[in-house]
Design a protein that fits this description.
Layout: H1 49-54, H2 65-76, E1 91-97, E2 107-116, E3 121-128, E4 135-139, E5 145-146, E6 155-159, E7 162-168, E8 170-178, E9 188-200, E10 204-216, H3 225-236, E11 246-252, E12 255-261, E13 272-275, E14 287-291, E15 294-300, E16 311-317, E17 328-337
Parallel strand pairs: 11-17
Antiparallel strand pairs: 1-2, 2-8, 3-7, 4-9, 5-8, 6-7, 9-10, 11-12, 12-15, 13-16, 14-15, 16-17
Length: about 350
């Protein structure tokens, strides 16, 4: 089976929310490359980000400071043995069933529920300037196939002094699993996989857990009332495709201008762009310029390991609606260089 996630931590065991969570402080575990060292030989961590940034020093000449450190941490934890394990307090991650059971030949939606303590957050599919999103490596019975993660709409949250894209309080990620046609009611199916994530607050807690759920096979599956509201919210926040909106993008130097216009619908309020790649900065403010039946979002290039591409993809999130009941609009437009 192809692995979609690294295996950075000693294996944990558990089902339905049980398992081993391992807490590690945010510190280097192996010698770091030169571009992760400050001018005086100290490693940049959440505790000294503020002081260095406020002094205006560009201490990292390579990729994003904390994203590199978090990535290094993630990829090397599996090589470290003999470390003291402590239970992770700030987050609980578990699989939940949004329906009463599998139906033969149909799709079943399973949820990955993240519940964070106050002051902590996890990350969206693109965390922005730094961070690491949840990844899931499924182990499914023969004939079952898992689709991609359906992410709720993110918010802007804080990682030390940086604005990042993620979730606070709780988030329900949805995954559709296609069932084979030969299932028989009365049997049960074990769905399992390994999840890895990063939960950050005053410090970062990387986590890895084996998750599992036993799901019956039924003739007529019904929604599970406890998860109906949250799962419906995630479904409604899937990006809408709409011909009602004319979207265009220009770029000049390090600045992007995303224009959203419509002659048939009012512009919703509090519009923010979240990109799928590392072109637009999550940390720098987005400015809105109102126009006649249009608005323009002025956004800045990602400073650390930023990309420049011929197209801009992502989502527009608003407090209002782009389509009926849909607060999230898909964006996939060419980028025109402006002079």
């Amino acid at each position: 089976m192809r692995s979609t996630s690294p295996q950075p931590f000693p294996a944990g065991r558990g089902i339905e929310g049980e398992g081993e969570d391992v807490r590690f402080p945010l510190r280097p575990l192996l010698p770091l490359p030169p571009h992760l060292i400050t001018h005086n030989g100290h490693v940049m961590t959440t505790s000294n980000l503020t002081s260095h940034r406020n002094r205006g020093r560009r201490v990292f000449r390579g990729p994003s400071p904390l994203s590199c450190l978090l990535l290094l941490l993630t990829l090397t934890l599996g090589q470290i043995s003999g470390m003291t394990e402590e239970p992770v307090a700030p987050i609980e991650v578990k699989l939940v069933s949004t329906q009463t059971g599998f139906e033969a030949g149909k799709k079943f939606t399973i949820g990955i529920h993240q519940k964070m303590k106050r002051g902590f957050h996890t990350y969206w599919k693109n965390p922005g300037t730094l961070g690491m999103p949840l990844q899931m490596d499924w182990k499914l019975p023969s004939g079952f196939k898992a689709g991609p993660i359906q992410w709720p709409a993110p918010i802007v949250t804080k990682m030390s002094v940086y604005n990042v894209w993620g979730f606070e309080d709780e988030a329900l990620l949805l995954v559709d699993i296609q069932a084979p046609k030969n299932l028989k009611p009365g049997h049960a199916v074990r769905v399992e996989g390994v999840a890895i994530w990063m939960c950050c607050g005053d410090q970062c807690y990387p986590g890895r857990k084996e998750l599992a759920l036993q799901i019956p096979v039924v003739k007529n599956a019904q929604p599970v009332p406890h998860w109906k509201t949250l799962s419906n919210k995630t479904r409604q926040q899937q990006p809408a495709q709409s011909e009602r909106w004319n979207i265009s993008c220009t770029r000049k130097d390090e600045e992007y201008r995303l224009k959203i216009a419509s002659t048939v619908a009012p512009i919703p309020g509090d519009v923010r762009f979240f990109g799928y790649d590392r072109q637009v900065s999550s940390d720098k403010a987005q400015r809105t310029i109102p126009g006649e039946k249009a608005i323009t979002l002025v956004m800045q290039q990602e400073e650390h390991t930023g990309e420049k591409k011929d197209s801009l993809t992502g989502i527009l999130v608003a407090k209002g609606e782009w389509e009926e009941g849909r607060p999230v609009l898909a964006v996939d437009v060419p980028v025109v260089e402006s002079r």
